[in-house]
C-alpha cells in the first residue's frame, strides 16, 4: 500500500463517493475529466502513488455533480498535519459502512430511483466484483426493509 498526504486522501475518497452517487464508473469519470481511460482507476488503486492534481478539483466536483467544498476538507481541517503521509486507504464498495453512506447519498440525489431495483443499483455503481455485489446486496436489503 502506497502512502500519500492526508489532504490528497481526503479528496480522493470524497471524489470516489460523489462519483459513485452520480453513477459514474472510474472509466467514464476519467473520460469526463478529459483524461486517459485509466486515470481514475490508477488514482483509486492503493498500490499506486497517483493522486488528483489540485488544478483538476473544480472539474472533479463538476463531473461528480457536487460542489468543490464537498471534495476538499472542511475549514476546521488540521492544516498542520495535512502533508503528513498516511496509508492510501481508499474507500470501497466491499465496506458495509461505505456502501450505506453511498446508498444514503443516492437516496438524496436525483438518482434515487436506482434504489428500487438491485440490478439497476449494481449497474449504477458499475460493479462486477462478487465481494462488492455481496456487500451491496446485504446493505441494500437492509435499506429496503428500513425504507419500505
Number of strands: 2
Number of domains: 2
Examine the secondary-structure arrangement and name the CATH architecture of the largest domain.
Orthogonal Bundle
Radius of gyration: 15 Å
Output the number of helix runs.
8
Percent in strands = under 5%
In CATH, the topology of the largest domain is named 434 Repressor (Amino-terminal Domain)
Shape: globular
- Just give the CATH class of the largest domain: Mainly Alpha
Uncertain runs with pLDDT below 50, 5 residues or more?
Answer: none
Question: Average pLDDT, to the nearest integer?
Answer: 93
Widest sheet: strand ordering:
1-2
How many angstroms separate the termini? Answer: 40 Å
Structural notes for this entry:
The structure is a single chain. With about 150 residues, the chain is mainly α. The protein has two domains: about 5-85, lambda repressor-like DNA-binding domains (434 Repressor (Amino-terminal Domain), Orthogonal Bundle); about 95-145, no CATH class. The protein is about 55% helix and about 5% strand. It has eight helices and two strands. It has helices at about 5-20, 25-30, 40-45, 55-65, 70, 95-105, 120-125, 130-145, and strands at about 5, 85. A two-stranded antiparallel ribbon has the order 1-2.
Question: How are the SSEs ordered, and which strands pair?
Answer:
Elements: E1 3-5, H1 6-21, H2 26-32, H3 39-44, H4 57-63, H5 68-71, E2 85-87, H6 96-107, H7 118-125, H8 130-147
Antiparallel strand pairs: 1-2
Comma- or semicolon-separated keywords:
148 residues; mainly alpha; 434 Repressor (Amino-terminal Domain); 2 domains; two-stranded antiparallel ribbon; globular
Amino acid at each position: 500500500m502506497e502512502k500519500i498526504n492526508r489532504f490528497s486522501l481526503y479528496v480522493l475518497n470524497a471524489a470516489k463517493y460523489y462519483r459513485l452517487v452520480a453513477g459514474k464508473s472510474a472509466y467514464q469519470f476519467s473520460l469526463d475529466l478529459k483524461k486517459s481511460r485509466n486515470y481514475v482507476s490508477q488514482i483509486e488503486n492503493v498500490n499506486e502513488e497517483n493522486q488528483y492534481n489540485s488544478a483538476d478539483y473544480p472539474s472533479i466536483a463538476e463531473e461528480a455533480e457536487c460542489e468543490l467544498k464537498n471534495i476538499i476538507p472542511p475549514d476546521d481541517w488540521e492544516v498542520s498535519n495535512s502533508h503528513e503521509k498516511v496509508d492510501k486507504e481508499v474507500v470501497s464498495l466491499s465496506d458495509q459502512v461505505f456502501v450505506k453512506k453511498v446508498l444514503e447519498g443516492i437516496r438524496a440525489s436525483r438518482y434515487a430511483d436506482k434504489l428500487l431495483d438491485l440490478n439497476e443499483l449494481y449497474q449504477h455503481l458499475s460493479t462486477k466484483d462478487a465481494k462488492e455485489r455481496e456487500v451491496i446486496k446485504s446493505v441494500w436489503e437492509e435499506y429496503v426493509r428500513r425504507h419500505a
